[in-house]
Prior knowledge:
Arc Repressor Mutant, subunit A, Aspartate Aminotransferase, domain 2, transcription, WH_DNA-bd_sf, pyridoxal phosphate, GntR family transcriptional regulator
Amino acid sequence: MKNMTFQLDKQRREPLYVQLYRQIKQEITNGRLVYGEQLPSKRKIADYLTLSLNTVETAYGQLLAEGYIESRARKGFFVHFHTEQFFIQNQKTPLSPVTKIERYFRYDLNPHRVDTALFPFSRYKKTVKNSLSAANRHLLCLGEKQGESVLREQIRQYLYASRGVSCSIEQIVLGAGVETCINQLILLFDQRYPGQCLQYAMEQYGYPVVEQLLMLFGKPLLKLPLFNQAFRSEPKIDLQLLVQSAVNILYLTPSHQYPYGNILSVNERHQLLEWAHRQDDRYIIEDDYDSEFRYIGKPIPSLQHLDSSLSTQSKVIYLGSFSKLLMPSLRVTFMVLPLSLLPLYQSTFGLLNNTVPRLTQHILAQFMQSGEFEKHIHKMRTNYRKKMELLCRLLQPYRHVIRYHGEHSGFYLLLDLYQESRSVAQLQMLAEKCGIKLYPVKQHNTDKKYFSFGFGNLEHDELHEAVALLMNAWGYEGEAAA
Length: 482
Ligand SMILES: Cc1ncc(COP(=O)(O)O)c(C=O)c1O
């Protein structure tokens, strides 16, 4: 790379992105990089210095924000600073990068982030290229209303093999995101039970998107408290409250409940199915969004599987998504409707076009057919499992102050700062000061200090650094294993 030598030291406490940012800035201010000169691409620097793309992005982001460089669309990054300017600025007010850097998050511990570095770009690109050809010009026209049959067939096979869901492709409906599917379900239930004020329920910390939709539709919603199974012997979900209420439609994430990462036990599953079958106007929406990423034991069969093995009149609507399996921006979600709801679905929505672009569906179907999808999931499961194991290891010396939950599945750990007297807001502020965006889990009626630590998009060295920074910010000292 053009005359640019950087010496980054992973052993130093100063984060790598700060080191990189400082060194590029120095090259600019001492005139070695001159106004208008192009900087190497982020990818090139990342490869050259064996850094994560995230690290380079943060350093470039900081330089951009401070006006040392500018970004030109489709061209790259260019020096945007005259050396003379530096001397004028320097005499007046010395730059204080530290105070500015605090506004940027070095690590965003969002529990929903996936690992974008391992996306199979070249294989996916090949599928895109193959699909975009004159031979496929029919894809330019509108497709099937419930989604392309080729993709629904791939989903059917995948669901049967990996989640035990048995259905025909007629029962599968594609939608652009969970919101589209839930929207349709709310309207469908209203059609099915006209004039009835249907009541909904979900887990206390259920998916906010679903909660918001139900509120927008003005649906009465009951939040069912979850109990932390690790410390108590109560059930994980308040079934008693459900049974005593007038709920009709229950939305659940039985294979990975937020925030504890619990799995609904077989007993509870049976009780819930029994509850649903007791009345015609009761249904369960099973959101199985990230069940592939389970690291211990056998995968838990879906609730839909259990229901269809017990009864011919299924009461479960199964929801799945490619957001965690591939990428959230794909916006491909699907639902499996019980046969009893199918005629009404088709008469209600029969005229509406599918919300997922036809070409996207076709590409995804080809990607699945080629076996690349399955390979990718295997690779990602191992990848996330290793990150989860590393995070648990890194937190081990802090068990006298932090408990964690949910290590058997998903992309985050729930941290319980059980010895802490400072407030959640104070702890969050301390984390933010050292560049870490944390997500507190709000607890009703308790003073628990819960945070979710998402690691999906962090590399191993970044995990080391993020934990060290966080523990340091909170003033926690590690203890050697007994
Ligand atoms: C509970 C839950 N359901 C579903 C999804 C996926 O939603 P979508 O398919 O709309 O991306 C997510 C994503 O984070 C989720 O947390």
